[in-house]
Amino acid sequence: GSSGSEDEAKPGTAAAAAAQKREERLRKFRELHLLRNEARKLNHQEVVEEDKRLKLPPNWEAKKARLEWELKVEEKKKECAARGEDYERVKLLEISAEDAERWERKKKRKNPDLGFSDYAAAQLRQYQRLTRQIKPDLEQYERLKEQYGEALYPTSDSLLHGTHVPSKEGIDRMVADLEKQIEKREKYSRRRPYNDDADIDYINERNAKFNKKAERFYGKYTAEIKQNLERGTAV
């Protein structure tokens, strides 16, 4: 009787084990299905983010970092103003000597004065210098936006002539800058006085400039040879 009951229990035990294995496989399948859906969702998000990054300008990261830094500076200035402190003084107190020296070296490397190479490079340097001096009036800009609306941003079909009248302050700034440029240009391009009694040792203006440079660098080494040639006693 006991052996019969054991034989009857074995099929039930085997069926329960098979059902448990099947349930385990279904659970793993559901887990894998959820993981696959999660991976698909993450891949889609990454594709969307990459597409956004590709559509951004190439220097977007640098611009973003610059804007974040400017916001921090503005917040710091407001905090200093609320406490009645000078922002420039506070900023200098927070900068270490090593950072100040490193910043100064970087500043010199950023805009080195390479001298005159050609007129295009000189014009570019002047353009960069002038644009760095521009301090936009944001309040005036907002007023113009309210006044002109979309007309403030011209297109190829816009009629620009006679639609803008510069302010007196803008004209004064332009005149002051032009006078400064003229004064600087005259200082560097003034004509040297001509000496009628000087010896003529050149054939044209370009050769005269070359001779002056040669005299400035090598005159002390060739003075004796030149005197011998003038006296006719050169060997």
UniProtKB/TrEMBL annotation:
The keyword Nucleus applies. Residues 1-22 are annotated as: Disordered. Keywords: mRNA processing, mRNA splicing, Nucleus, Spliceosome. It is found in: Nucleus. Its main location: nucleus. InterPro entries: mRNA_splic_SYF2. One of its GO terms (cellular component) is catalytic step 2 spliceosome. The keyword ATP-binding does not apply. It comes from the Eukaryota. One of its GO terms (biological process) is mRNA splicing, via spliceosome. Involved in pre-mRNA splicing as component of the spliceosome. Belongs to the SYF2 family. May be part of a spliceosome complex. This is Pre-mRNA-splicing factor SYF2. The lineage of its organism: Eukaryota, Metazoa, Chordata, Craniata, Vertebrata. The gene is Syf2.
